[in-house]
Amino acid sequence: MKITFALNGRETTWEIEPVETLLEALRRHGLTGVKQGCDTASCGVCTVLLDGKPVPSCAVPAARVDGHAVLTVEGVPEKARAVGEALAAEGADQCGYCAPGLVMSLVAMEQEPGPPDEDKIASYLAGNLCRCSGYASQSRAIKKYLGGKP
Amino acid sequence: MNEVGKSLPKIDGVGLAMGRPAFTDDLAPREALVVRALRSPHPFARLKSIDTAAAEAMPGVACVLTWKDVPRIAVTRAGQGHPEPSPRDRFILDEYVRHVGDEVAVVAADTAATAAAALDVLAVEYEVLDPVLDFEQADGHASVLHPEPEAHENFPIGFEPQRNIASAYEMHVGDVDKVVAESEVVVRRTYYTQAQQHVALEPMVCATWLDLHGRLNVVTSTQTPWHVRRIMARALDMPVSEIRVNKPRIGGGFGGKQMIHGELLCGLVTRRTGKAAKMVYSRREVFTATNTRHPMRMEITLAAHPDGRLRAIDMQALSDTGAYGEHALTVFMVAGAKTLPLYNKVEAVRFGGKTVYTNHAPGGAYRGYGAIQGNYALESALAELADELDLDPVELRRLNMIAEGETSPIFAIMGEGTEGVAQTIDSCKLPECIDRGMELIGWNDKFPRREAGPDRVRGVGMALAMQGSGIPAIDMAAATLKLNDFGSFNLLIGATDLGTGSDTILAQIAAEALGVATDIIKVYSSDTDRTPFDTGAYASSTTYVSGHAVRKAAEKMKAELIAEGAAMLGCDPQAAVFDGREVRGPGGAISLEDLSTRLLYSRNQKQLCTTGSHLCEKSPPPYMAAFAEVEVDLGTGKVDLIDYVAVVDCGQAINPNLARVQVEGGLVQGIGMALTEDVRYGKRGALLTRDMMTYKIPARQDVPRITVELVDSHEPSGPFGAKSVGEIGIDTPPAVIANAVFNATGVRVRDLPLTPEKVLMALRRTQES
Q1: CATH number for the segment(s) A2-74
Q2: I want to staple B569 with a disulfide (CB 3.0 to 4.6 A). Which of A66, B272, B558, B585 is the partner?
Q3: Mean pLDDT along residues B369-374
Q4: What is the pLDDT of residue A150?
Q5: d(CA B448, nearest CA chain A) in Å
Q6: Residues of A whose CB is below 8 A from B665
Q7: Angle value at C-alpha A29, between A26 and A34, nearest 5 degrees
């Protein structure tokens, strides 16, 4: 079946399998920033924004995005670079497999009005698991990233 | 030092955050066949028949393979050196399946949907056998997992398959029974540790294809490219020279990717079809069909003088290796070898037991590698002894722990699978680690407990830990440094960065030894065709072993730069120096940029290329003192971790940020093992914890305040004073948290994890008695 949607701001038409997840369709089309992790919407490495809201793309049927807007890490290179630099400055990047999903959750959070407080950071990032860093260094990096922004 | 000791950013971090293609599945050929395995629903069965006709007839199916299609060559998928200390008890596919999730058959198709449909129409007739599901009943069970005549040990490891014994080991120093009988204080306890899953966020994944020469190319998420190549060659019955293995970025390993996973099936499909193939594990397959930490039963006897001086330690263990003996012996030995030397002043010490087969998912390497099991038992038992003697547990450690300038006979007796190597401890800052840790946690104010509200109580606990730095006299690594025009270098290393930052810290070591800035060292790693050899990323070896190889290559390069620079300048090399920017002689100087460019294009032309290789001769342990405060809800038994403090002696940290994050990440995995992570099976052998909703790893909000500090230390035998840091972080949480719960409540849970249910039941039992 065919779907037409806005992918990273560009109108896109894809031929997809009816059973395909958004994760599978994105990866099949070469968007390598979206990762497969858990298959059960538990780990956050496949996070993309669907109409501005963070969703686990492993739990979204590709057909569902017809007529909607999908933003992946490939669509926010400047943000991804800035978050990546902040993570690297703290040694928090480690294997890097969870980083693009973390970037997308941060992008979603920053669209909310008002400055992010601890609670908002905790709730937005709760679903982004990391098995390498133990989170402490990520928290240090994210605080610096949010604090250092204009 | 200029480059070592700096917290430089990891060289790959930004590209990974941007999602650039870097991992195996990103790099697999787009046209690759999708390889899927049919997995056993039974814990133990013989395959009476497999009807593949319907699957083979499906359009898009490239091949269907069963045990009848594979060479009958026994291998181990452990991913260890040659010859492996694990039994060769596996085939690419076998007539028997030995755990739920074991491979029955393999299908390759043009799409994932076709592959899944083909699996659905495979008709298998199973002869279901009586499984061995209790590891304490495995020895002598009527069912024998490995009766096949081809299964064998490569050298004596105590392999007795007819008794379901994968390996056995015994050692002793002095007469433990006599010392125990004579001792005034004796503590005997039994502890159980559970299976733990690595849960690297990137699942196991590999891809294979034939290049224009017909050679089998493999890109795979592995910690051990050379072992993958060697074991694939054996299993597929082809020469090592016809295989190239490359590890790109990998999404976490923690030991789980030391083992061989889809590579054999994928390689087989490519050999059969001539087509590219890839195999991406689902998370469910990661849980059911890869490896776990070996569950163990540890029986400990401590004998002591009334003043707390230890006289004897006896540790007798039983380990469950599941269906296959991957790392059966070596994980077992490390449970003693990397815990018992902490207390080296005993008159007698004994360690032994066996590792048995059961019809569970196989055990394997997992960060800590036995040391975490041993640490939980030994450090819990010491806390129980301290309580019996009414001694502060910190004082009990201080009285008995190893110190700089000392040794333990265990270093010489116990290696990994073989004898060990004698060593004297040249760096051990445990006294400093303990003092600083006590200060950070507030031990003197908080020990043992304080009320924290109605029905809530807080307590503190502590433990020490040691690990090693590589496997002495076995782990070998090499590095090549190549000079480029305009003054940059390629550092080619076999070492395998699994997200730890080893590519970065090895570049720092090269830069330090050369005297240049790290950013002119361009790293390429882990490719069996294009980089020199390395045994792989395991046993906390990379900084200590691969680091030395890099240092040696860089020192040779520096000498060659000086010689060539002096020749250009027309001076005696003895009179020339290289300061990182230029070679200077008495009469002038030439910049690195000019020198390197002239060497390739215009004068005295040659390629400067140096190689260093290193075999580690000792394995200096990193040390840690760890402390935690917990709050226990007496009404529910729930344990909340409040604060965790770890002070580490890892020698000179090459990159302090990365070293610290290694410890922080290790601690959180250890906290998971202590509190929530538990691989559980149903009564009939099916895995109950087969996704991330039923198997609970720590999330952001589960993690307490964690404070990690590295003390000043210098290991004389290490590259620029470094020891390892990759594993030690995971070792302490089970013991520390169990000890804190005891100090808070008086309840001792000797069976991991410390779930609310177990703590509550123990509290109830105490109240009733």
Answers
A1: 3.10.20.30
A2: B585
A3: 98
A4: 42
A5: 27
A6: 94, 131-134
A7: 35
